[in-house]
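User: I'm writing a short methods note and want a consistent example. For ABC transporter permease, I'll paste the sequence; you return only the structure tokens, no commentary, since I'll be parsing the reply automatically.
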Amino acid sequence: MNKQWLWNLLTIVLLVVGLVAWIMLPWQGVLAVAVALALWLFLTRQGRLALAATGIGIASLPQRWGASSVIVVGIAGVVAVLVAMLSMGRGFQTTMNSTGNENTAIVLRGGSQAETNSVIMRDQVPLISSLPGIARDGEGRPLVSPELSQVVNLVSREDGNDVNAQFRGVGELGWAVHDSVKIVEGRKYGSGLREIVVGQGAQKQFRDLDVGSTLTLGNQQWQVVGKFASGDVHDSEIWTDAQTLASTYNRGAWQLVSVRTEGKAGFEQFKAAMAGDPRLKLDVETTKAYYAKQSGQLNQLLTILGTVIGAIMAVGAVFGALNTMYAAVAGRAREIATMRAIGFRGLPVVMAVMLETMLLALLGGILGGLLAWLIFNGYSASTMGSNFSAVVFQFKVTPELLWSGLKWALGIGLVGGLFPALRAARLPITTALRAL
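Assistant:
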């Protein structure tokens, strides 16, 4: 009894390890496995027998399509949920990674991980502006934008609940620093006026942000005068003049300074000069690096969560495949016994059942991936960013995620078909033939 228990436990452990190794296998490895299997099937006698036995099993699928559809639908559900969960993280990461570039730097207080916990004194801004490596506009002014980040409550269009939004105060030269931000409707806000422009993502997410609308923020009335588009995380924000925002919320210091540098060399020069000035105990990095870092933890969390949920659902799909294939083997007992009696050995029978299950799993994987792509690809959602405000992004179902889902499907089919296949190979010929 103990030996049998240990053997079963070892079998389960080996299956889990093998399944994990299969899912992590790169496409080159999968291609090598597929080529090796194809060569064995077409160039060996046992392989050709396995193909013949598989053909017999597939031909009988219409007679038991109801039971077989359990495998297809179950695996399709696993793949659809898994790909959808992972596409959420991939979409958020893509939005964050598309924000910023190598020519724009963000300056924060030393040790600050995000804008919300950073403080930069006003008298430090002229010192920052005097450093080398900073690009200048046509009038010779350094492209430096002292900014504020204020979290405000706006009403969600979807359910009417209050949601945190990013209200950013931008310096006079902020539009030149953030040159990817373009007005697509209306106009820019005026300096010293309580006027705001809204990102296209924020306008879709929140109420009362249409151009011409008025809303109350900080006990003051603000006029929406324009809408902008940037194609990145700034689409989720609303912007105004930095000094106006500071006076509204009684801010005596800035939170960050955005700087446009003279290319990569200019950034390195600016960073070195910043580190060499003892009056400036500030951190500086490119905006691309900063926003990419902000997305890392959430993407990792969503990946882990999606994998765990997918694994739990995969267990259910495996049991569904096991039940279905055990029933199929029992129902085809005479057929399998007849094949064994006329010369089919155990290996071709095992491979026939396995190939049949893998085919059903492949159909389920394709169906699940197609559903995930049709329903979720490009679907807009929002989540909380590093500044505790909503970031609007789109789910991104990539070929890489679809490929991962397909490998999960084939892995489930492999595990679900293995034990029924072994049972079919060990089926006593004489016992089965007595039923003829």
